Amino acid sequence: MGVKAAPDPQQKQTIEIGIIGGPFDRVTTFLQEFEPGQKDFIVNPETFGVPAREVNQVVEREVEVTVPARLHASVLDMNRFNTNRPGGGGIGFAVGIYFRARVRSTKSPEIIVRGQRPLIVKHFASVFKEILGFPGGFEIELTDHGRRHIGMGSSTGTMTAACLGINAVLGRPYDERELRRVLGFNACEESPLNSSYLMRGFETGIGTMAGVNGGMVLSSDDLELIHRVPLPDTRAVIIVPDVPSLEDEFTGKDTAAQSEVELLMRRARHLDSLQAGVKSQIILLDLLPAMVRGDLKGIGDAIFDLSFLGSKRAECEQHGMFGAPIYRLVSCLKEIGADVAGMSSVGPTIFALTRSSEVHRRVMKFLAAEKVPENRIMDTFIDNTGARIVEQGEERTVRHEAQLSG
Fold it and tell me: Residues 295-350: pLDDT tens digits?
């Protein structure tokens, strides 16, 4: 890996990464910085199977969007995605921690962004203007959950909330499946090299699927939603453990863009090239039947097995001592009685799901004995409703309008 830096610190830079997947899979990819709205970094929907649409009239509307955060238990195969190809599949849960956006369409062509993650929000406002030929503009204010680059889906949740709001004020030109493709093929996050620029992101679609539909979702390659089930009356205890990789509680420098890309494109891909078949068997023969039955323990047993395989193993290992700190906590939570326990995304955030008040009490007692600070514990629930949009005082759930077959 090398960073090509120009003498001018404001000049866009490029991260060069050698990709290693299977034994014969050795190529180089480039992450280039770009400005929000830069046209050569906007991907036209027709290139990824979404028909061309136009919104050429301006109707001034305003909506408020609420989107739950996601936990991402495992990618299915990291060899099936890249910065220019979203996919790879995954397992996700929607939880009661929220992103909120207020979006207004305006006759003025200006894009005005307030609040958090302004670069991402401004870029997606520009994406919609460009691909739909929308002559108006937007006023957008977004609030994220504040836990960034620790496995809580801060970037994908921001993109989902912004896209849902923009799509709504434009009269919903895209359905749920089309919208997540627009998001996935234009996914981005802030550059680790320069705070004024963005870089392409890696996207499985799990954040959007879980955020829109709530409950538990299983996706396959190419951003396709395979199955979604509610998990009623399920508590979720989310912990940010103190592990060697975590330099800062809220930004997690060692799990941010540059080193995260190196992890995903090297060891994680290599291990998935060896074990994606075993992972797929567990998902097809154990996880999916448990989802159909609503068997929370069966779901948890399958996810626990996946924690030691392929890319999830690589993700756990990056947090020191070959994953021992993560595996110890996850194993303890399972031993205590949590139905589901695992690490979310690249971590180090771990989670425990249970429907038992007694198990919940034991989990909290264990965390107190471990001296985990209260500000590193989020005691919440599985959100089975998904994204909500309020317009003119009337609330509707996005899932009821979604095409769950896709």
Answer: 999 999 999 999 999 999 999 998 888 899 999 999 999 999 999 999 999 999 99
At residue 9, the pLDDT reads 55
**Residue for token pair 């027709």:** 46
- Domains in the chain, number: 1
Long-range contacts of 42-47 (CB under 8 A, 24+ apart): 42/126, 42/127, 42/130, 42/131, 42/186, 43/185, 43/186, 44/131, 45/131, 45/178, 45/181, 45/182, 45/185, 47/185
Structural domain boundaries, residue 47: 2-401
Q: Looking at the whole model, is its pTM more than 0.85?
A: yes
Domain-embedded: residue 406: no
Residue 78 · residue 72 · CB < 8 Å: no
Taking residue 285's Cβ as centre, other Cβ atoms within 10 Å add up to 10
Q: Do the beta carbons of residue 70 and residue 93 sit within 8 Å?
A: yes
How are beta strands 111-115 and 137-143 bridged, if at all? parallel
* Beta strands, E only, 76-119: 90-106, 111-115
Instruction: Give the pLDDT confidence of 38-60 residue by residue, as tens digits.
Output: 999 999 999 999 999 999 999 99
- Residues 346 and 257 sit within 8 Å (Cβ to Cβ): no
How far apart, in whole angstroms, are the C-alpha atoms of residue 26 and residue 6?
27
CATH number at residue 269: 3.30.230.120
Peptide bond into 230 cis (omega under 30): no
